[in-house]
Amino acid sequence: MSNAELQSRKVQAIARGQGNAYPVYVERALNAELWDVEGKRYIDFGTGIAVCNTGHSHPKVVAAVKAQLDNFSHTCVMVNPYESAVALAEKLNRIAPGDSDKKTIFVTTGAEAVENCVKIARAHTGRRGVIAFNGGFHGRTNLTMALTGKITPYKHQFGPFAGDIFHAPYPVAFHGVSVKDSLKAIEHLFKVDIAPCDVAAIVVEPVQGEGGFYAAPPEFLQALRALCDQHDIVLVMDEIQTGFGRTGKMFSCEHAGVEPDLMTMAKGIAGGFPLAAVVGKSEIMDAPLPGGLGGTYGGSPVGCVAALSVLEVMQEEQLVERAVKIGDTFNQALSALKEQYPQLIGEVRNQGAMIAMELVIDGDSEQPNTALTQAIIANAAEHGLVLLACGFYGNVIRFLPALTIGDEIMAEGLAKFKALFESLVG
Question: How far apart are CA 91 and CA 89, in angstroms?
Answer without folding.
Answer: 5
